[in-house]
Design goal:
Layout (H helix, E strand, L loop, with lengths): L1 H19 L1 H4 L3 E5 L6 H16 L4 E5 L4 H9 L5 E5 H9 L11 E18 H7 L5 H6 L4 E4 L5 H12 L4 H6 L3 E4 L2 H9 L5 E5 L5 H7 L4 E4 L3 H11 L2 E5 L11 E13 L4 H13 L1 H5 L10 H4 L9 H9 L3
Parallel strand pairs: 1-2, 1-3, 5-6, 5-7
Antiparallel strand pairs: 3-10, 4-7, 4-8, 4-10, 9-10
Helix pairs in contact: 3-13, 8-12, 10-11, 13-16
Length: about 325
């Protein structure tokens, strides 16, 4: 009888330990839709995997390459991944059913904001800016300049955002062509080469402040960073439900003024009907191990739990929202 009692006590203690440490009892095997391999999103995938592993040993978050955020809206909607990184502007197109989507996508729910500091940067060769007296992006439209502009590839959300910014200053791609200029669509890695070869005058693209491609370009050509006026920034931000952003003076040694622009935000999403326990546990894992995300790249150093909880484009999954409330956000 004594042995049976001891055995019962031991079993009770073991059960209590399991209940007290659900992270050690639960494991997850999830897929995360990202973008191309080798970029920041793949590093973020590794950081999310590390955070989940730390909270739930034995778990795996597998990074799945894709065509990027627009593709991820469809992949997540179709249930082909458990988690997905998507820009806020891409999610907005999805939920509104605007091209390339043919109908509203109602299945998205936010888990976390990952970064907000990849602003649209209008980088012009200093010689062109001085020749034409350009101080702001609005001057291109006001002066009807024959400028040669490079936007990101067609189908990339930031190329559409670049077109919106040009239209907002009265310099649509069609206008620029009529004035004798041109708008080209090229991948970020190609744009610097185009400017170094004097085949374009301006790059308008979403890039981290201080990105290596900008530093390399500045070592070859004198550059100017163009701001937009507040009314332009606010109009574009409203159109896309994105944020305004100020690139501070001194962020580049060749720029001595604050530069107002707009920025996209990369966010982590799940399906709205995802398992609440899983979503809550993953969100808590990210909250408790945010250092794992910061550690993937120096660009991620500003990430905070407060920022993770600040999305506005798509409502949070209720289990994620509950996790942030419990953490005081």
């Amino acid at each position: 009888m004594r042995k049976l009692l001891e055995l019962g006590v031991a079993c009770g203690l073991a059960l209590a330990m399991v209940q007290a440490a659900p992270g050690q009892a639960q494991t997850y095997n999830l897929t995360l839709c990202g973008a191309s391999p080798g970029g920041l999103w793949s590093l973020l995938g590794a950081g999310i995997d590390a955070a989940v592993k730390k909270a739930y040993p034995g778990s795996t978050v597998t990074y799945q390459t894709s065509g990027g955020g627009l593709a991820n809206v469809a992949l997540l909607d179709q249930g082909r991944c458990d988690l997905a990184i998507i820009h806020d502007a891409e999610a907005k197109l999805g939920i509104e059913g605007k091209p390339p989507f043919q109908a509203p996508v109602n299945s998205l729910a936010t888990v976390a904001v990952l970064y907000t500091w990849a602003p649209m940067q209008a980088i012009v060769s200093r010689s062109y800016a001085q020749e034409h007296g350009i101080e702001t992006l609005e001057d291109i439209g006001a002066k009807k300049l024959p400028i040669r502009v490079a936007l990101n590839r067609r189908g990339n959300i930031v190329s559409a955002l670049g077109e919106s910014m040009l239209r907002a200053v009265g310099a649509s791609p069609e206008d620029i062509a009529a004035w004798g200029g041109s708008v080209q669509y090229a991948a970020s890695g190609e744009q610097g080469e185009l400017m170094r070869d004097r085949r374009i005058d301006m790059i308008l693209n979403s890039l981290f402040v201080g990105h290596s491609s900008i530093r390399e370009l500045a070592s070859a050509i004198d550059l100017v960073l163009l701001p937009v006026r507040p009314e332009t920034a606010e109009a574009v931000a409203r159109e896309w439900n994105i944020r305004t952003f100020v690139i501070p003076a001194g962020a580049y040694d060749w720029n001595d003024r604050d530069v107002l622009t707009v920025t996209v935000s990369a966010q982590l999403f799940v399906r709205a009907d995802a398992d609440p326990e899983m979503v809550g546990n993953i969100t808590r894992a990210l909250i408790e191990n945010v250092d794992a995300l910061r550690a993937v790249h120096k660009a991620m150093a500003p990430l905070t739990v407060e920022l993770m909880a600040s999305a506005t484009t798509v409502p949070y999954h209720e289990a994620a929202a509950a996790a942030y409330r419990a953490a005081g956000h």
